[in-house]
What does this fold into?
Amino acid sequence: MSNSRVTVREIARLAGVSVATVSRVSNGTGQVSPEMRRRVLEAIEKHGYRPDHLGRALAARRHGALGLVFPGLSGPYFTELIQGFESEAMPSRSSVHILCTHLREDSDAQVLEMGRRVDGVAVVGGTISDGALGRLAQQTPVVVIAGEGPGDVPSVRAENTASMAALTRHLLVDHQLRDLVFVGNPAGSPDVTRRWTGFLDAHRSLGLAPPAAPVPVGLQQADGVLAAERLFRPGTGTGTGTGSGSGAGAGAAGGAAESGAAPARPGGVVCANDETALGVLVGALGRGLRVPQDLVITGFDDAPMAGLVTPGLTTVRQPVRELAAEAARVLLAAAAEPGAPPAPDLLLTTELVLRHSCGCPADQATSTP
It folds into this structure.
């Protein structure tokens, strides 16, 4: 019968050997004479000794576990990250410990405590401070997902700026839209910061004045619904117009502005992610607006629902699962070779996915690198 109160020192005393010998026998490592092995195994069997897992892990500096740190778990994005991370961790026989900080004030302390119990930690960008990331990297391998780490802390992220610029240029040039708005909070995420930058870059490259500020909401579908309430409140322009490809967005907005009516609704809503875009879509359809005839809506991520709704959502596809899988590979390699140089940063490619919500024909929606 197992007896957790029996210690390795007591087994060593009962068997008449050293603590190191008991450790070698119980772990199956090192050279031990047949006689000493027999005595140790008899003492272990008689007294039900079981090695302490945490103690062995501390001695070997291996825990058989990886940590994954998120600000929260809502939405399909984090589900995809978990699945990608586990796809690499499970074959290596490593368990995955997940910590959701919910942006609490003690987030740094929570993550540092996790670092003591795992072989490496992947942290979503912006979840904890750079100072805490640096301290964490001193005690265990660390990689930042969808962000950049301080110093030598490696990162794995998808390209955001150029792809958002390409999406915005598609609306401005191919559909001749104007009065675009960006829905998302650049201060809340490194990825959203880069997407806002790409949105601005597209306007400036065409000599167009971008909006002074985004509509600063979160990244959940409910946040998109709230944004719709602000953008489509009673009194905004509602004409149908005759815009190119996408319909009335630009025409209706311009007409309202010229007539001195209430603030016109935008020609298009460029959202920081698909979840927000789906919320804006719900809000627009609920107010009788037609997409894309009256209004263009786009997202980012290419979540599963983006291609299932009507109209299909124009978006940017990023390899979410591969982001997390690459992060797990970096950590596993670092744990296998302690003291090895830090891994290089990885930047994964994204692609523009054109569907009907931007005005492209529904039967000709394509993916463009």
Observations:
- The chain has 13 helices and twelve strands.
- The chain has three domains: 8-51, 62-157+320-338, 161-317+352-368.
- Residues 54-61, 237-262 have pLDDT under 50 and may be disordered.
- The CA atoms of residues 64 and 94 lie 5 Å apart.
